Structure formats: structure tokens, C-alpha cells
Amino acid sequence: MRIIIEKDYAGVSRRAADFVEALLRRKPNAVLGLATGSTPLGLYRELIRRHKDEGLDFSGVTTFNLDEYYGLAPDHPQSYHHFMRVNLFDHINVPGDNINIPSGTAKNIAKSCDDYERKIREFGGIDLQILGIGSDGHIAFNEPGSSLASRTRPKTLAPETIRDNARFFGEGEEVPKFAITMGVGTILESAACLLLATGKGKARILAEAVEGPVTSQVTASALQLHPHAIVIADDEAASCLKRRAYYEHVERVSSGFGGES
Ligand code: F6R
Hints:
Elements: E1 2-6, H1 9-26, E2 31-34, H2 41-54, E3 62-65, E4 67-69, H3 80-87, E5 99-100, H4 109-122, E6 128-131, E7 153-156, H5 159-165, E8 178-181, H6 184-188, E9 192-197, H7 203-211, E10 229-234, H8 244-253
Parallel strand pairs: 1-10, 2-3, 2-6, 3-5, 6-9, 9-10
Antiparallel strand pairs: 4-8, 7-8
Helix pairs in contact: 1-2
Fructose -6-phosphate (F6R) binds at residues 35-39, 66-67, 132-134, 138-141.
């Protein structure tokens, strides 16, 4: 794993945008895996800025999002379809037909999950998957105990996740208890994974994911098995990493290699 530590949230967002931009310059028809939540918002703002100010072009890009709440239609204000439109897609030039997000309302959920997996394969797989980490160590909505070989499927959300996500919902509004999510196995097939972690609240769980055992109890730890997993953390989120000094040393001295793993 490559661990990059930046001073603050803005630094993490810029650094993550550098990875996306480098990919798009090298491969204009790249397949991007995208996440929702608070963490990637700065990255999305930076990508929008680079699109508007510097002409970063998304016209050939295809996107696959990690997850969607079960039962929420695409136009529901708390749906991840809506989140992605408002926070990214409405402001860049990715064609609508190239956007893929799991359906939270498909009549045949199992079939729609299989179709999602098939479509990712048909596009040649995901080139770069953006990830956040949940306070229970989840990536996408792969809650503790999720199979590390899991594929896109419905998942029951953990009480911690429901509590964490309640901040996006109004008073009296019910937070969904289920989601449709890419599996850990799906994520691990991406050519590269970029996990973003910011803030003190993520420090303990990030250290478990990066330096603890690979376990389905902390599904982000499965990234240790990935040959091209990059973590970008801010100072606060990196504060519990035992080998922090070594990771910083690696970043200082090894840039000539073109990437540690
Ligand atoms: C979102 C997702 C989740 C979030 C995680 C962290 O699509 O898959 O795994 O990345 O819950 O959320 P934030 O960034 O809000 O702390």
C-alpha cells in the first residue's frame, strides 16, 4: 500500500484530483469508480474547478458509483443519484449515458446487481476506484462481516452507519436501513484504488485498516491485498498510524520509482 499524508482536507482533495487528472490525461476514456459521503466532496469540487478553469475533459469518461440506498428513487433528495448530480455530474461534461449507479428501486434486485457487475466487466473494469472509509471500517457499504469476495448485492446497514448517515437526513426523516453496494471482491478488481480519509474521527479505524490484520470485520483492510492501493490521509486521520514516519520517508525518497505498493 502506498500511504500519502497531506496536511489537511484541501491537500487531500488536491492530491486525489491529481491522480484522477493524471489518469484522464493518459486515458481519456477511463472508467472511474466514484463514492459519495463527505470525504470526496473536496475532490469533486477540485475536479469541477479543473474542468471549468483548465478544461479537464470528462467527455469520454464512464463512471460507476459504489452504492445506493435501497428503496430511494433517483430523484429522491437523499439518494446517491441526486448527491452525485448535485455535487459533480451537473458541473462537468460526463455524458449522462456514461453514468452508472446501482438502482435502489429495481423490481428484480438480484438481476440488477448482476447486470451492474456485467456492465463493469463490459467496460473493461474500473481504472481508478475512489473510496472513503466508514467509522466501522467499511468500504462502499461492505459492513463488518462482509465476505472479502462479495459482489454487488443488497446489504443491511450497521447501526453505526445509520447513525453516521443520519446527518444527511432531515428531522423525522427515516434513514434507510439497507443499501445496494458493490462488493469487496468487485472493488478489489479495480486496476487501482484510492482511499481518502480525513479528520480525527477516522484515525483509529484507518490505522486498523492499514496496519491491522486483513479481516472481514474491517473491510477496508482488504485493500492490503490490492497491488495498487493508495491511501491519502490528512494529518488528523493519519494520527494513529504507527509507521507514519516510514510512510513519509518513502514519499520523500522513492518518487523516482513511479509508485510503491
Ligand atoms: C459512499 C460509501 C461509504 C463512505 C463512507 C465514509 O458511497 O461508499 O463507504 O465512503 O461511509 O463516508 P464519509 O465520507 O461521509 O465519512
